[in-house]
Sequence to fold (235 residues):
Amino acid sequence: MLEVRGIAAAYGQHRALQGISLHVAPGEVVVMLGANGAGKTTLLKALAGLVKTLPGTEIVLGGVALHGLPAHERVEAGLALVPEGRGIFGELTVRENLEMGAFPKRARAHRARNFERVVELFPRLKERLGQAVRTMSGGEQQMVAIGRALMSQPTALLLDEPSLGLSPLMTGELFKALATIRSGDVSVLLVEQNARKSLAIADRGYLLEIGQVAGEGSARALMDDPAVQRAYLGL
Ligand SMILES: Nc1ncnc2c1ncn2[C@@H]1O[C@H](COP(=O)(O)OP(=O)(O)O)[C@@H](O)[C@H]1O
Ligand SMILES: [Mg+2]
Fold:
């Protein structure tokens, strides 16, 4: 279980996160919807330890307090981030990128098994293991980024707008993979502007507005909410 209480962060005088609380159970996909600038990326970076949080922030994963730990120790505790822009190495091959994901101590012994799981999840990658990642399509690169995160054997997987710039078809394929990942008891936290596709696979969702939670509910209830339809579904 990923439990977050009162997470707050600032860039200078600008309070980008104003005390957000959320939880993601094992086997759950939770989507955080928010417009451009709402604070989605800041939230994920703050969870991963890449943006400093303010006193009072609590981040707990599987009973372990993460808020005092540096980023690499949060990875060892089971947190993996697929960052905006993917953060993969274009000159390296698919296989090399995936193997870098198994660097954390928690993952080294399980490297072969995790590798098998990743290529089973993304058969397109299996056919392209020796290919340089920069020569692949945006969707395939996103699969490499997610695959690399899974190689660290996470119990919580955080994804920053994985559908950005992808075709509807590719987005559908990726989101289907997230539904499979969830069934392995991983807590999946997805931040997205694409409300329609993400609510279709999510169990629950939160609405983020100017660094605050402005609403939450089951994916079904959010989809049926007229205010959500106006703001996020373009209806
Ligand atoms: N490195 C930064 N320095 C200063 N302000 C930032 C920085 N990154 C983001 N911000 C500001 O914080 C707010 C939230 O940004 P961000 O988390 O990137 O939102 P989102 O991912 O939802 O688009 C915005 O007002 C943005 O301008
Ligand atoms: Mg962002």
Q: What stands out?
A: The CA atoms of residues 96 and 103 lie 11 Å apart. Residues 11, 14, 16, 34, 36-42 surround adenosine-5'-diphosphate (ligand 1) (CB under 6 Å).
